Amino acid sequence: MQSNMAQKWSRTEAITGAILFLFCLLVALTQIVNPFPHDGWFASQYRLLERSPGADNYTPVSVPALLYALLHFIAARFGRGLGAEFYLGSLAHHLMLFASGVFLYLSHRCLKLQNAGLFVSVCLVVFIESTLMPQAFWSENVTLCLMSAVLFVGFLIVTTPALGNKSFFALTTIFGLLLGGLTITRLTPCTILPGIILLYFFHLPRARVICFALLATGVVLVVVLATMTANVYRYGRFELTNSAGRHLWNVISVRSDEMLAGSREYQLLKRGISDTQGKFWWDIDPGKIEGLKHLAREELFQILSKQAITSHPMTFAAIGMQNTLWLLASCPGRIGLSWALHYNPLRRDTMLPPLVDSFPVLEHFLELFHRMAAKVYPYAVYGALMLGFLATSAVAIFSTPSAKKEVTLPSAWLFLVGSFFSMLYLTGQIERPDGRYGILHLPLLLIISSSATGMLTRIWAKTSWKALRGWRLLEKEKTARSV
Question: What pLDDT, in 10s, does the model give residues 74-118?
Fold first, then answer.
């Protein structure tokens, strides 16, 4: 592993890392902390060991639950209350964001894109800080760190030819654990596994590809099955979550009048709520509608979702494509500024104050940076994808047959783009689009743009050098003839 793991850090790398760490620490200490956790991620820690047969399992008990349970234990160990736990959680989120930037840079280092890696790592950290997400308690910051780590370990394996068997099996196990944790938290990243196996197929010995496929898949399955088995103890059901019907309803409800015209349950729902189409699941209570009172929300929306998808599969796929295109160009908002809705454990009306005196200049900078990023974001996304397509085509044209086997950037780019679009489409197919869902895909998108730029730069350097060399040879021939 000498080539990638044991490289010395340059002064530029060390200084950049130190500045990023201090920047994250500065934001953590001088900005407000959001004490209004959404989507049940913070409260999921209380269900880790709790047994509640038949209870709702909308928010899965996964990696965020383990994180918040650890923070709860630390706060309780030192005799601190829930307020201190929120501050500790915010600091932990900033540390994870810094780790995300480091993992993103290390992925670039594996691909020999150090300069681009430094730039995009800084961009990622500053952008996420501008959303104030680390000050709140969504799951996105946890999944961002896991995704960055998964990509780093995946690229480390494929770009380290001298990897010993023990190191290979250790890294494969770590990869499986990280991807398993990511899958039980967000589900869609499971599509990375077949993509990276295909990438390895063209760059690693067949024996190693088979070992990686079996071991990584096995570890992911163990993590998923262990979580589902634990839910048998918690809820009496073998499942990751029982929210599929509600999530799918939010997707199909935009065209529910068309897709459920022949549904008896939907007609009963329409009698109680005439403007049902387009409503979110939380705006509909079947317990208040005659003929549907015997159904829980999840039961009703599972029935309606199955009816809609089986009767109009093409319409359902079209909605997913429409949602994907919306997500593709939608910049994540400042989700750290959310307010109390259903869960306000401290019974507050305002945010928690900063740990130290507020820093208005930094606050204005973050706000301005996010405003600029929101305007640039769609152009940057489409530009990165088009640039990558151009670069990959250029590599296919200008590279020699022997070089094509050695080049890893084009195949890495294809793997990243395939993973990016498969995850994005799956997200759009099972979720009503929300800009914050794009946060999980940012590491993929940033490496896509860096690898495209790297390919074009290398092609330009190679072709310009050949042209210069040819020109010099021509000048030498002219000089020789004149003599």
Answer: 999 999 999 999 999 999 999 999 999 999 999 999 999 999 999
Phi/psi at 109 (nearest 5 deg)? -65, -40
Cα of 402 vs its chain's centroid, Å: 35
Residue-level pLDDT at 402:
44
Q: Measured between alpha carbons, how far is 157 from 147 in angstroms, rounded to an integer?
A: 16
Between 396 and 450, name the one with better pLDDT.
450
Alpha-carbon span 121 to 12, nearest angstrom: 13
What is the reported pLDDT for 342?
73
Q: Where are the beta strands (DSSP E) in 19-98?
A: none
* C-alpha radius of gyration, the chain, whole number: 25
In whole angstroms, give the CA distance from residue 131 to residue 369.
9
Q: Which residues contact 289 (CB under 8 A, 6 or more apart)?
A: 268, 269, 271, 272, 273
Residue 33: strand, helix, or coil: strand
* DSSP H helices in 202-294: 206-235, 244-252, 256-259, 264-272
Whether 396 shows a pLDDT value over 80: the answer reads no
Distance CA 178, CA 172 (A): 10
DSSP summary character for residue 85: H
pLDDT of residue 5: 52
Q: Give the separation between CA 5 and CA 28, rounded to whole angstroms.
A: 30
Measured CA to CA, the distance from residue 414 to residue 427 in angstroms comes to: 20
Model confidence pLDDT, tens digit, residues 146-167: 999 999 999 999 998 788 999 9
Rounded Cα gap, residues 118 and 102, in angstroms? 9
Report d(CA 134, CA 129) in Å as an integer. 7
Q: CB neighbours of 392 closer than 8 A, spacing ≥ 6?
A: 410, 413, 414, 452, 455
Residue 137 corresponds to which amino acid?
Answer: F
CB 91 within 8 A of CB 75: no
CB count within 10 Å of CB 290 equals 8
Distance of CA 437 to the CA centre of its chain: 8
Sequence-ordered strand ranges (E) for 17-93: none
Q: What residues have CB less than 8 Å from 221, skipping those under 6 apart?
A: 180
d(CA 395, CA 383): 18
Cα–Cα distance, 323 to 326 (Å, whole number) = 5
Rounded to whole angstroms, how far apart are CA atoms 113 and 86?
A: 37
Alpha helices in 236-312 (DSSP H): 244-252, 256-259, 264-272, 297-311
Q: Which of 46, 57, 63, 69 is nearest to 236 (CA)?
A: 57
Higher confidence at residue 466 or residue 62?
Answer: 62
3-state SS assignment for residue 37: coil
Cα four-point dihedral sign 431, 337, 342, 53: positive
Q: Which two tokens stand for residue 450?
A: 């860096």
